TrEMBL record:
GO terms for biological process: carbohydrate catabolic process. Coiled coil: none annotated. The lineage of its organism: Bacteria, Bacillati, Bacillota, Bacilli, Lactobacillales. It holds the Pfam family Glyco_hydro_1. It comes from Jeotgalibaca ciconiae. This is Glycoside hydrolase family 1 protein.
Amino acid sequence: MLTIEKGSFPKDFLWGSASAAYQIEGAWDEDGKSPSVWDKFVRIPGKTFKGTTGDVAVDHYHRYKEDIALMAEMGMKTYRFSIAWTRIYPNSMDEVNQKGLDFYQDIIDVCLENGIQPMITLYHWDLPQYLQDAYRGWESRQIIEDFEKYAVTLFKEYGNKVKYWITMNEQNIFTRLGWQSAQHPPGLSDEDKLHYQVNHHAFLAHAKAVEKFHEIVADGMVGASFAFHPSYALDTKPKNVLAKHDFDDLKNYWWMDVYAYGRYPRAAMKYLESKNIAPKIQEGDFELLKSASEKVDFMGVNYYRSDVVEHNPEDGVDNSGIVNVSGKKGTSTETGMAGIYKSPLNPHLPTTDWDWTIDPMGLRIGCREITSRYDLPIIISENGLGAFDKLEEDKSVHDPYRIKYIQEHLKQIKMAIDEGSDIIAYCTWSFTDLLSWLNGYQKRYGFVYVDQSEYESNPSLNRYKKDSYYWYKNIIETDGEAIWE
């Protein structure tokens, strides 16, 4: 809408990067930590690329001071990381593990000593296995009380030092892949009714945490991080435009409306009720969701791609399509909801080796949509490019594709800010290379190359700065002006 103003970002803009405990820490059974659902799931043959586990990951548990020193050298303003529930309450919800509390306290202190604002994610998918065994985790309303207790423990422990908090990472992803496509724990497929019930429990747990947050943390901000896929109708055919609206209600607003308004989209709920897969709502649930929505301080956005949407016939594709976890371009297949929508490839956009569309303008479109629909500040909690990186003989890594990807997305963020979106932070995914869940270590996202691989029995885990490390350092030093160079 506006012409491009090639200026700098706001002076208080938080330039950052993000990670998740399971993907970086390793030390999976050290200092009292118990197994999470992911520690068990990755041991099922065929679930991850070449059977990769997070037992060691990139050993951040023992190397966090080295990693944070690299962040400080870069000039990073914020570091988003998650806390492993299994380090805090490893064996039951009755006993706190002091070594777990101390570990994250030290990370927070080292960040602050280096001028880096810590940003904490309470839950990034690694549910304690004992809760899954006791009552099937998110499938039971018992999880609401346990999550609240876990959250309160962290708010009391760290709330005097940490301002920015995220309750859950990508609730829409861990529930869909866990209960509809069997790609994540607990590995169930086609459990549509259970999927929506699990989501309802997660919303209530999020709401309980938000309510407690503002009772405990005097000067903080809290919200959830959502994997947002802005959508485009395939063409102007009314049935495809309607499919886009259905997609938005069932894939985007189903989550964001609850975070921001405390209610579900009406048309989507009517559809789920007609299919007898709507969640069971108990008395007081909507009152809690509404109350919490009025206390949410921002919308967290994890953005990697947009989606094209067209009508899907009754005998059309479902969620059981092939997901590319090998990096062999073109191997993923179309997915959707039969009778509602499907998402074909966008012919106007390039894709990554993992078949994700590269659409910088989609991020700007998404930010404008959040601004006009919810009028909330935005934290871009993840954005980045997974790629095959090569460590050269001189230990350099040349990744111009990553630089271009981030540069073009930052240009669109600056335009969104100029258009009125209140974007307060940008966290790349990720700072170091890490375990990319199902994709193993071959799919690299970091500014820092980590010598870790599925193909070596004893990798060094040494850290090496990529070209993108120096580029992002310059972006931070210039308050973003260097993106126009």
